[in-house]
Amino acid sequence: MTLSCGGLTLEVLTVGASVRRLVVDDGDGPLDVVLGYADLALYGADEGYLGATVGRFTNRLDRGRCPLDGVTYTVPANDGQNALHGGPDGWHARPWEVLEEGPDRVVLGLTSPDGDQGLPGEVTARVAYELSPAGVAISHTARTTRPTVLGMTNHAYVDLDGEGSGGVLDHTLEVRAGAYTPVRPDLVPTGEVVPVAGTPFDLRTPRRVGDVLAEDDEQLARAGGLDHNLVLDGAGMRTVARVVGASGRWLEVATDRPGLQVYSGAHFDGGVTGLGGTAYAAHAGLALETQGFPDAPNHPGFPSAVVRPGEQFSAHTTWRLGRR
Known about the structure:
The chain is mostly beta strands. It has helices at 209-213, 218-223, and strands at residues 2-5, 8-13, 18-25, 30-32, 53-54, 60-61, 65-68, 71-74, 83-84, 97-101, 105-112, 123-132, 135-144, 148-149, 153-154, 157-158, 172-175, 177-181, 194-195, 207-208, 227-232, 238-244, 249-255, 259-263, 286-291, 306-307, 313-323.
């Protein structure tokens, strides 16, 4: 499906309700600013999750464990001993149904049966993408028949100088977050919430991504760069991050979620070819995943991910694009 509005074009796939292209035409001709697989068969199969909707539970679960109401459920492991983005058969790998389609809006749906990924409750999930002249609005909603845990996000990687242009080391990044959640060597949160002051995660003023990654820091070394949850300032729908490419093209992210996973794409190793024919090397793109906190079911001090019958999981994110 292809949506268009003003100078923006968005291509969405039913596999994983994935964003394959986001093309910006701001006067210099059309430019795709998100990473996408040249091989369609990799959608739902590759562990890079390019552009995918991930769930039921976004990010990592320690050994796949999910304690809920006195019972511990287990999501199958797919990241060492841990579960990542719903495990090996997460929502990124499922065919989604097109429920609504128009020139600038599409809604996709998925029914996840009771026991899916080891978690309780039949879940009815929806993803809506809507274009405006300013950018893209993404809405994730879900309901359940039994108490369960839910966390959905989009896993797009951006390169504002153009997909395959050489990576994001010369991008600048600003995130309105006064704290972050440190990780163990296996990248599962320790349970701490630590101020960013004096750490590489202090992005409250814009910093060049390459300079951040060059810092001598144990947390960065564990992840091969940035792969951490930042604790966002404020609440409700607000602007939380701004990325600017070397070209001056910028992206602002707004969300109503409490966390933002900033991932600098360390896993890219030249083994995946993008739509423009370039093999993606390390840091080929930057993922800004709006989310609840990773491993939240195992940390009572983190924002709860529990959703019960009669409640609705709801998450909203916007990408606003422009050029200096």
